[in-house]
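Aim 2 progress update. The chain analyzed this quarter is reproduced below.
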Amino acid sequence: MIWLRTFLLGLGFMSIQVVWPLYDSFVTLYYQEWISSGLVVGLLMAMDNFLGLTLQPYVGALSDQTRTRLGRRVPYLVAGAPVAALFLALIPFAREAGLWPLVGAAVGLNLAMASFRSPTVALMPDVIPPYLRSQANGIINWMGALGAALALLLGSQLYPRDPRLPFAAAAALLVAVALVFLFGIREPAVPQGGDPEGERPQGLWAAARSLARGLVDPQARRLLLAVAFWSGAFQGTSTWFTTFATQHLGLDEGDATFSLLFFTGALLLFALPAGWLGGRLGRRPTMAVGAALMAIGVAAVWFAGSAAEAAEDPWPLRLALLAAGTGHSLMVVQTYPALVQMAPPGQTGAYTGLYYIVSQIGGILAPPVFGQLRDWLGWAGVFAATVLCLLVASATALTVRGAEALLTPEPGKTDGRRPGSAVF
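Predicted structure tokens:
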């Protein structure tokens, strides 16, 4: 039963991850047909990050207080995914109609996607017991990576035939997943994290104030700090990598994009092992090792890229990206289960919102900061800042307590297994 639940939850995350590669790949080009300013195009494309700071966390906290026949989280996806599918399918038609119809379709898509992402992610700790959340999150992240790869495949194969086809296919997947959640997901009356009768869930900003004032376990604040540094390192470097590879290394755009697949593809290879390691060895050491390994990989990217023959033989660069992506996999699979493990009863959605606030801050601040470092110090400044952020994230993760879930299905009964070693 847990296998089936995890697979269904993974479908929800996969449908979300299918949308953004298509959106990022093609809508940027559509805007440039009408707008010459890169700054304006960049601001329009950052819309999802701004909503990640506002609407998305708010809806996550709101879902804590939602009570319907379908449950707390499912109604948001069932209502939001079809609306998102409609606007996604309309984008290529809006492009032909003009700039403002295109902006309107993009705004509608972003609003609809932001309305159900946090509740969809927060559903995992509601239906998966604490001692299996690292493994489950590994499977879910693997399915998300598969969704992103599927989006790139749809774009490359269907777009040349008809630009509307990949958008229509992704929209159909969103509707199909909404139907699966409507008929296939039954939320428990009492979430796995607990929801004592009479305990009123906190809102997002109340939870944030509690964290800032130390009224909630300060370990959550340490974990969020580690997430902030890790997310900033990831967002800042990934934003500038293609520019680094083409302008500094002399790779063409195709080789640069192919090289970057070694980083993103690592999540497909290592998301499942990362989930197993988090359950077996513990989330805290796995996070710390992941951030440190990513730092080593990023440093190796700089040294491999600095070699004179990097453009002629990019494979050392690609292997370094694979190492960095492996560390990223170890980190990303553990952080969310670790944070919701610390959430007080009834506040999973609020803590999910806090997780996205911290992640989105990295996505907004890191690219321009790293860009300024490039202007001041050259590319060495970008890579040095990335390594420093990751080492801070690793050291901070090591100080976190309370991230582990060592409970067995029945307290006191291990069924011959060491606590925390449960597998599907």
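The longest helix spans residues 2-32. The radius of gyration is 21 Å. These observations will guide the mutagenesis experiments scheduled for the next reporting period.
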